[in-house]
Amino acid sequence: MTRINKYELVTEIAMLCDELDACRRELEDLRRGADARTAPGGGGGLDVIDLMCLNAGRMKIFNDCTHNCRTVHAWRDEDTGEINATSFEESRENAFRRCPDSMSKRDFFEYFDADFRAKYEEDRARAVDAEAIKVKEGEDD
User: Fold this and answer.
1) What is the DSSP letter of 84?
2) Residue 122 phi/psi, 5° resolution?
3) Is the distance from CB of 83 to CB of 135 less than 8 angstroms?
4) Residue 95 contacts residue 68 (beta carbons within 8 Å)
5) Do 86 and 72 meet the contact criterion of CB atoms below 8 Å apart?
6) Which span out of 1-15, 65-79, 85-99 was modeled with the highest average pLDDT?
7) How far apart are CA 135 and CA 104, in angstroms?
8) Three-state secondary structure call for residue 100
């Protein structure tokens, strides 16, 4: 166990208090910035309606440029009995159809990474559940 003296303890506490104050100021600045961007007539920022329209356009681009079919398949490994699924990268590649002319495929993948991951996780859960049911039914026979 390492012991510290009173001076080091007081110094550490003072540094932590300073860091806490800095974090609180940064949080307040971020809140003010978010409020200014979402307030109607916020002066140069985006209001709620602008954000809603941008989000709708973003979703439309993603949906127009990807396949809606399931791109994740699950199977049972005969040796281990474990249920495996298509990798994220393979699923993303299979879901991709095209990208807008103004973007490269790499840019498209980076920009829509969260959307691809959300779709993958949803499809993967469905595929694994379906395979688990098939395995369970096979064991019951």
Assistant:
1) E
2) -65, -50
3) yes
4) no
5) yes
6) 85-99
7) 41
8) coil
**Which two structure tokens, joined as six digits, stand for 110?**
């980076």
Render pLDDT for 6-50 as a digit per residue (tens, 0 to 9). Answer: 888 888 888 898 889 888 988 888 887 776 665 655 555 667 888
Question: What pTM value is reported for the model?
Answer: 0.63
> For 53-65, what is the mean pLDDT?
93
Strand partners, 85: 74
Q: 141: which DSSP letter?
A: -
Pull the structure tokens for residue 84. 């495996």
- Cβ-based neighbour number of residue 45 at 10 Å: 15
Three-state DSSP state, 6: helix
H or E stretch at 1:
none
d(CA 98, CA 101): 9
Nearest 5°: the CA angle 23, 27, 30 is 140
pLDDT of residue 140: 60
d(CA 106, CA 104): 5
Longest dimension (CA), the chain: 73
To which residue do tokens 């003010």 refer? Answer: 32
